[in-house]
Amino acid sequence: MHLQLFYIATSLFALAAAQQRANPFTLPPGFMITAGEPTAITWDPTTQGTVSIRLRQGPSSNLEEGIVIASNINNSGRATITLPEDTTRNSDYALQIISDENPTTDVNYSGPFVVESENTVEPISTPASSEAVTTTTAATTSPTTASTTADSSTTTGSTTTMPTRTARVHQLVALDQARLVLLLNRLVRQIAVQCR
Fold it and tell me: In this predicted structure, which of 8-17, 18-27, 126-135 has the lowest mean pLDDT?
């Protein structure tokens, strides 16, 4: 019984820690995106101004830079995104939301999710032109591409700049917190089922 209470308390603490980060995602359990199809995403808008959203892939300790899927959009707490049809099917994707006013510290990540796609082969290289995707907010559709922001990672042409060490640490901590919350929530659900 004490162990169960410990797990519940730990889960609640981790959830509270993730919610304290800027603009936490509010995606439903089992969230997934189908490449080439519009998908609604939501978050709790806790910062002022605009945000940018990137699709990242890989383990939380080594996320690839990914692609910008929305740039300088109003921080309304929702957007409709469409990933390129050639996005590779995989289960290790995450969304990154970045406050455009404070991109070094106001960063957050979704938990891992699946991208469904007909494409099952990773590309050898991705030119910058493939970074264009369609973003719809407030019934407006416009193409977006990678943009340069101070102290963050961007891809321009074929040159990639790496994030500062501080920004990378913030990225890893946010993603690890989100994954910890998911794992602890699963554990709490399992414990609740066993206690019935």
Answer: 126-135
For residue 179, give Cα distances in angstroms to 10, 15, 149, 184: 14, 10, 26, 9
What does pLDDT average to over the chain?
A: 74
DSSP at 178: H
**Gap between the Cα atoms of 83 and 41, Å rounded:** 12
Q: Which amino acid is at 42?
A: T
pLDDT at residue 3, rounded to an integer = 54
- Residue 40 identity (one-letter amino acid): A
Is residue 126 pLDDT above 60, yes or no?
no
146 contacts 131 by C-beta, under 8 angstroms = yes
Per the listing, tokens 């890893």 go with 172
- Dihedral sign for Cα 63, 67, 163, 98, please: negative
